[in-house]
């Protein structure tokens, strides 16, 4: 795949002798194209000079074609469109420092803001996005390094073939290699299930499944999947979002997939539990104390283990980027710039515009799979006024160790700051992002 990417770069940016000769003749060739002379010369070349010259001419033809379409010549980019606020970027800038495709995993928890975060990363342009590829395998469960667990904390240690480490690794590797046709049927099923997959509308035009258990259905799916592979191969970044993988197994496979970067998205567990309660049950319905206690323990235990795993692995520089949703909601631009820098994505004015539209609105709207769009700070603090103090204190008791690790405050401290100035509610916890951003001279 990396070799294919390098060939793609050579087709878009002239190098070596092709670059030098092209710079000498580009004005003439542009005029000839407009007069439709070059296509005529192309066919004359076939007749007169034969295969060898044709091979060389096709290289030149491609160089000229790329110039006329992308305006990219020898690594120097001229005006691409009429948006003067957009910086001019080379193909290498859109890839990481090693000149290969960006590979990103967002690892998080249900109702943690992962859908919003994945939409934010997709503003980096030319991103191929895969939404929850493991849904068909784990459903409401998630994979740990040595087990499969439920959201209530129960785990089993006997794994079937689809749940094995090798299969998990192969699924990730094939997605990042754009080899979708090699994926298991249960993974392919998620491509048709979720609308946010890149290229899903094209899949539906090709074939609308009737039954995922039908062998004929699977054959048709695999024929259509080539459209996804084409889109994927043309992308600069491949992004996978999953709530069904813990950090220990992701970091375990990290060394097997070069240039992979993991974003560990965390959120205040009280906000997660509030969002789950609202999403799955009727609004204003009474809170089930027993269920909340069980869910709080299981969620915070899982998050704490992930945080510890990441801290241990960061010592060897193989850990994940910790993204706190509350900090993203409080200071979207600063945190996004830091995130984009880590992911080798280009932060542009269009990203700023998208952030303003999705985090500063007065009206809350439902997005993909219930993701909310509106005033991000207000959305992130809804739990404070919805949960009773008894419920919040119960969660505090189950999650106090996690709070200490991530910098969250208990209910009493939160209420005091919320009444005093809610806009500074997460200031201390989020200051680290601005410090790090200043250190890399982005602002």
End-to-end distance:
35 Å
Assembly context of the chains: single chain
- Taking Cα atoms only, what radius of gyration do you get, to the nearest Å? 25 Å
Shape descriptor reads globular
The biggest beta sheet is recorded as: 5 strands, parallel
Strand content: 5-15%
Briefly note the structural class of the backbone.
Answer: alpha/beta
Spans of at least 5 consecutive residues with low confidence: 1-25, 43-98, 363-374
Residue share in helix: 55-70%
Average per-residue pLDDT, rounded, comes to 77
* β-strand number: 12
List the strand order in the largest sheet: 4-8-3-9-10
Please report the number of helical segments: 20
Structure description:
- With about 450 residues, the protein is of the alpha/beta class.
- The protein has 20 helices and twelve strands.
- Strands 4-8-3-9-10 form a five-stranded parallel beta sheet, sandwiched between helices.
- β1 (about 70-75) and β2 (about 75) form a beta hairpin.
- The longest helix has about 35 residues, at about 35-70.
- It is globular, with a radius of gyration of 25 Å.
- About 30% of the residues are buried.
- Mean pLDDT is about 75; it is low at about 1-25, about 45-100 and about 365-375.
How are the secondary structure elements laid out?
Layout: H1 2-12, H2 16-34, H3 37-70, E1 72-73, E2 76-77, E3 102-107, H4 114-121, E4 127-131, H5 135-138, E5 141-143, E6 148-150, E7 155-156, H6 165-176, H7 185-193, H8 200-206, H9 215-233, E8 237-242, H10 247-254, E9 260-266, H11 269-280, H12 289-314, E10 321-324, H13 325-330, H14 332-343, H15 349-359, E11 360-366, E12 372-375, H16 376-380, H17 382-386, H18 389-406, H19 411-421, H20 427-439
Parallel strand pairs: 3-8, 3-9, 4-8, 9-10
Antiparallel strand pairs: 1-2, 5-6, 6-7, 11-12
């Amino acid at each position: 795949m990396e070799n294919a990417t390098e060939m793609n770069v050579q087709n878009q940016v002239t190098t070596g002798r092709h670059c030098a000769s092209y710079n000498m003749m580009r004005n003439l060739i542009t005029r000839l194209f407009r007069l439709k002379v070059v296509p005529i010369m192309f066919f004359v070349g076939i007749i007169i000079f034969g295969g060898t010259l044709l091979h060389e001419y096709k290289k030149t033809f491609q160089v000229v074609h790329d110039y006329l379409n992308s305006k990219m010549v020898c690594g120097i980019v001229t005006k691409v469109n009429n948006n003067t606020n957009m910086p001019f970027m080379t193909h290498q800038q859109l890839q990481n420092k090693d000149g290969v495709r960006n590979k990103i995993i967002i690892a998080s928890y249900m109702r943690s803001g992962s859908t919003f975060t994945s939409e934010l990363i997709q503003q980096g342009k030319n991103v191929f996005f895969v939404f929850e590829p493991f849904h068909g395998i784990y459903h409401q469960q998630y994979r740990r390094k040595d087990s499969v667990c439920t959201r209530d904390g129960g785990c089993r240690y006997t794994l079937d073939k689809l749940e094995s480490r090798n299969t998990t690794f192969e699924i990730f590797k094939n997605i990042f290699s754009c080899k979708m046709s090699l994926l298991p049927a249960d993974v392919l099923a998620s491509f048709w299930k979720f609308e946010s997959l890149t290229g899903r509308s094209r899949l539906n035009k090709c074939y609308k499944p009737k039954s995922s258990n039908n062998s004929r259905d699977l054959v048709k799916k695999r024929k259509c999947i080539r459209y996804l592979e084409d889109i994927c191969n043309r992308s600069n970044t491949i992004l996978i979002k999953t709530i069904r993988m813990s950090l220990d197994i992701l970091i375990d496979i990290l060394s097997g997939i070069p240039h992979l970067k993991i974003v560990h998205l965390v959120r205040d567990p009280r906000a997660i539990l509030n969002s789950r309660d609202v999403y799955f049950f009727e609004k204003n319905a009474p809170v089930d104390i027993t269920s909340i206690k069980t869910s709080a323990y299981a969620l915070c235990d899982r998050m704490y283990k992930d945080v510890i795993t990441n801290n241990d692995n960061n010592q060897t520089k193989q850990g994940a980027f910790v993204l706190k949703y509350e900090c993203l909601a409080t200071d979207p631009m600063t945190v996004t710039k830091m995130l984009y820098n880590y992911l080798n994505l280009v932060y542009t004015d269009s990203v700023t515009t998208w952030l303003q539209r999705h985090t500063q609105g007065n009206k809350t709207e439902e997005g993909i799979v219930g993701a909310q769009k509106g005033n991000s700070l207000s959305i992130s603090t809804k739990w404070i006024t919805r949960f009773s103090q008894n419920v919040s204190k119960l969660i505090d008791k189950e999650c106090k160790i996690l709070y200490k690790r991530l910098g969250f405050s208990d209910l009493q401290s939160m209420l005091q700051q919320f009444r005093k100035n809610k806009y500074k509610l997460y200031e201390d916890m989020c200051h680290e992002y601005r410090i790090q951003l200043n250190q890399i001279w982005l602002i």
